[in-house]
Write a structure and sequence with these properties.
87 residues, mainly alpha, 2 helices, elongated
Length: 87
Amino acid sequence: MKLLYKPLSILFSVLGGLLAGTLFKQVWKRAAGQDDAPDADDANYSWRQVLIAAAVQGAIFGLVKAAVQRAGAQAVRKSTGRWPGDD
C-alpha cells in the first residue's frame, strides 16, 4: 500500500505545483495588473511589493499542496479502505 502511495503522492505534488504556479500567475495578473510577480533581486520593486508577492505565492502554494495531499489520501482510503500512513 505504502509502496504505491508514495510515487503517486510525488506525481500529484508535481502536478499540484504546476497548478499552483498557474493559479498564482492569474491571481497576480488580476491583482497587480502585471504579467509577472516581482523578483526579490529586482531593484525596480520595493520591499513591500516583493514581500506581498512572496506571501501571496506562498499562500497559494500551501493551499494547493494541502488540497492535493488531502484529496490523494481520501482517494486511497476510498479505494483501499485504509488511510495512508496508518500502516
